Amino acid sequence: MDAVISFFSFLQGLGVSVMMPIIITIIGACLGAGFGKSLKAGLTVGVGFIGLNLVINSLFGTTIGPAVQEMIHRFGLALSVIDVGWPAGAAIALGTTVGLVIIPLALVVNLLLVLVNFTQTVNVDIWNYWHYAFVGSLVANVTGNITFGFCAAVIDEVVLLVLADATAEDCQEALGMPGVSISQGFSLAYAPVAWAINWVIDRIPGVRDIDIDVESMQKKFGVFGEPLFVGTIIGLIIGIIAYFKPGDVAGSIGKVLTVAITLGSVLVLIPRMASLLMEGLLPISDAASNFIQNKVKNRGKMYIGLDSAVAVGHPVTLSLALICIPLMVLFAVILQPLGNQTLPFVDLSAGTYMLAVAVPVSKGNGFRGFIIGIISVIMGLLISTALAPLITQSAAQAGFNITKAVGATGVAGTSLITVLSDGGSPLSGIFVLLSSINAFVGLVATGVVAVAMALWNHKRIVKEAKELHAEVAAEKNGDQA
Amino acid sequence: MKKVVVACGSGIATSTAVEAKVKDLLDSNGLKGEYSIVKCAIGDAPTQCADADILIATTAAPAGIKCPYVNGVPFLTTIGKAAAEQQILDVLKK
Q1: Do B78 and A177 touch (CB under 8 A)?
Q2: Domain parsing of chain A, residue ranges
Q3: Which of A152, A181, A424, A455 has the lowest CB atom count within 10 Å?
Q4: Which structural domains are found in chain B, ordered by start?
């Protein structure tokens, strides 16, 4: 084990933009994608990392960090933790030690779980394996022990695969896609939240019959939902709060507009860079999903696990996500006395993913979706504030030197970043909370829950298979009669 | 030049996967150089589709789309992929 860890520390020492191309090339070649193709894939991933690093380090460091700092100083705000968003979160997670091996590790775990009927979901969405690594790297940081990090990543995967199975029917019905389940780690983390809230609402007479039409709101917002506009408008607001001086309009307007344009650019550039990462991972993802689908052929009823991107098209989800954007900003401000320090930014649009599974689970009810949205936003802000030091630490491990970039303002306290989506997910919160009590407590508690969920799922799968056989047999008998 | 719009939730992950497969499909069917692909988030799709020939999305089609729509999920699951490919070729070879 020591030799393995020191090998990985050596790779880590090379820097993520060097190490990831090597790792991706090796994994690709092993999965049979061909050396040339794998090498190109690896190098493209390297490009993605370098690009993200440039955007995060220079734009955040030179313009956004100082502006946020100035804003905090002038008005005594507490919002000093900048949300860099899930695209950067994915890069951070994949660049940590846990992230290095997450693809082969999670693939093997998924395969084993399918073979013993602990899950019906074959998660072909290799890209989203980073969610497991994200939780794993946080636990590794909080416990100071990489082995606990690996265990947490695997436990997280088990929990998520069971949740994917449990929400599959609702998702299939809402989206009209038979045979799939949503296996993405962030959206699924809100399924238990949705179940709990629905359970409570179902028990309140009157309230349980409420539904509101949120779909018509989508058209009214229209263009303002686009990232470029959202970023520029938020930038304009931050710019005005930070730099606008009524006595010196001409002098301050330049600074204000620079912040506006820069924030708009970040919201366009970060997704572009993350998209390069995805492009690089594509041959690996194809090879891996072929590999796993071939291995589980001819089994009973299987679900193909997909990204929740396929679910965000639900009109209720889309509309509520737009409503969540101003809510995130509003709650970020009013929750300051309760300890919120997260300044929502790149993940302002993450409401879509927050609700992608929660809305189908709530049968598309707009009112319940709205309540779940509000509660999730509040939880997200508080958890992402609490997890910010750990996420910043993961980011540094993955070669994103946030402290250096943002700290260049020369003012202490600006050096934290967070990821409002995954860093604010209840699942990440629970893992970190339990692990911070004690490393073993975290491991045992989450492990026991995961095993219990897997056993429950096993029972359900076996029962379902029996019923399926009985039906087929009954049909045969019927034909004969 | 035909304009092909490929969309998913955020325009980052699944749309990249579908884009690559659609490119392979079109190139191997002799359409190389006759099309351009724009990748975007589903929220941007109505704007992008104003002058497009086809929308391939991994989500349901949003309201207000005038061009033909093909569901891109078969490219992710490989179930029903042949039918989806045929739909796309039918639209673009016209």
Answers
A1: no
A2: 77-222+302-480
A3: A455
A4: 2-92 (3.40.50.2300)
